[in-house]
Amino acid sequence: GRNYDLASRRFKTAIDEIDKSIDHLTKTKEALIGAENNLRLANDKAQDVTIKKLTRGNPTMAEKFRELEG
After folding, report:
1. Is the pTM of this model over 0.85?
2. Residues 6+ apart with CB under 8 A from 54
3. How far apart are the C-alpha atoms of 60 and 53, rounded to whole Å?
4. What value does the mean pLDDT take over residues 51-69?
5. Residue 62 burial (CB < 10 Å; 0-12/13-18/19+)?
6. Are residues 40 and 34 in contact, defined by beta-carbon separation less than 8 angstroms?
7. What distance in Å separates the CA atoms of residue 65 and residue 70, rounded to the nearest whole number?
8. Is the separation of the CB atoms in 54 and 61 below 8 Å?
9. What is the per-residue burial (b if ≥16 Cβ within 10 Å, else e) of 30-51?
10. HSE-up of 63 (CA within 13 Å, CB side)?
11. CA gyration radius, the chain
């Protein structure tokens, strides 16, 4: 009857909305995983920066770091 049809449509609408939410959360999760990978790569590169590399071919900076070492 009419009540069944109404309830059935509401269930279908609710299920469709859940599916949309799942899709959205999946896309958000993938974006966060991608961002985490980029942060990890950036961190790895930052960890690889040394005073020796920073001062190579730059006598002014080499002198400044020597002054800091005291």
Report:
1. no
2. 61, 65
3. 14
4. 85
5. middle
6. no
7. 9
8. yes
9. eeeeeeeeeeeeeeeeeeeeee
10. 3
11. 29
Q: Which pLDDT score, from 0 to 100, does residue 56 have?
A: 85
One DSSP character per residue, 5-66 reads HHHHHHHHHHHHHHHHHHHHHHHHHHHHHHHHHHHHHHHHHHHT--HHHHHTT-HHHHHHHH
pLDDT one-digit tens code per residue, 6-54 = 999 999 999 999 999 999 999 999 999 999 999 999 998 888 888 778 7
Tokens at 16, concatenated: 């469709």
Instruction: Decide if 37 contacts 31 (C-beta within 8 A).
Output: no
pLDDT at residue 49, rounded to an integer: 86
